[in-house]
Design goal:
Helix content: 25-40%
Radius of gyration: 21 Å
Largest sheet: 6 strands, parallel
Structural class: alpha/beta
Oligomer: single chain
Order of helices and strands: HHEHEHEHEEEHEEHEEEE
Length: about 220
């Protein structure tokens, strides 16, 4: 090992050993009640062209169908292992919207997924009011492709899972005890800008995002 490399590695190890000593860490906290968290999350999402619908446990599936029909959505892909799968299937099929379970290996149906699916449906782990961000932890039953490939991403969010800040969410959910390989923070539909700062939507993912907040 060269002397220069040895010195660099020693400095890195030293930083690792000393990390946190003598450093005072502060975390912003907000005393927002549940209604304020919903309002702030909604405002932030709408600022970036996401659509938010506040609904109830009794009405969310009916509200979802109404919104999908208004958008001309003909099919929706979802995780068959989701706890709301049966209710979702029943609501969609009653209004002639095709309910498509994500039950095949990607190679077996990637053409349909990428070219024919109108919308993808996922749950969420929570949301952050301060930044207007959704928290998703994809897994094998509800993979990342559900929220990435279809042009419309639909998210079911429980109002009780909206936290004031990112730090509050991590602490309340015990992120320090274990995280997945892919944790997502989604703040609006996919967008990108060219050198002239002209925004284009749907470049790297869904061009539309619909969030149903269940109170």
């Amino acid at each position: 090992m060269s002397e220069a490399r040895r010195r660099i590695l020693e400095r890195l190890r030293s930083v690792g050993r000393d990390r946190g000593e003598g450093i005072e860490r502060t975390v912003d906290r907000h005393d927002w009640d549940p209604e304020e968290r919903i309002a702030r999350f909604t405002d932030r999402m709408q600022e970036v062209r996401a659509e938010v619908q506040v609904t109830t446990e009794a009405r969310w599936s009916a509200d979802l169908v109404s919104l999908l029909k208004a958008k001309g959505v003909g099919n929706l892909v979802y995780a068959p292992d989701s706890p709301v799968a049966a209710r979702l299937e029943s609501a969609l099929q009653a209004d002639d919207i095709e309910a498509v379970p994500y039950a095949l290996e990607i190679e077996a149906w990637k053409n349909d997924l990428f070219e024919r699916m109108d919308a993808g449906f996922t749950g969420s782990r929570g949301a952050i009011a301060e930044t207007g961000s959704l928290i998703l932890w994809p897994d094998t039953s509800e993979p990342r492709l559900l929220s990435l490939v279809p042009p419309l991403h639909v998210v079911l969010l429980q109002a009780d899972d909206i936290y004031s800040t990112f730090a509050e969410a991590m602490q309340a959910q015990g992120w320090a005890q274990g995280m997945p390989t892919n944790a997502l923070l989604i703040s609006g539909p996919s967008k990108s800008a060219d050198i002239a700062q002209v925004l284009a939507y749907g470049v790297h993912g869904p061009r539309s995002l619909l969030v149903l907040i269940v109170t």
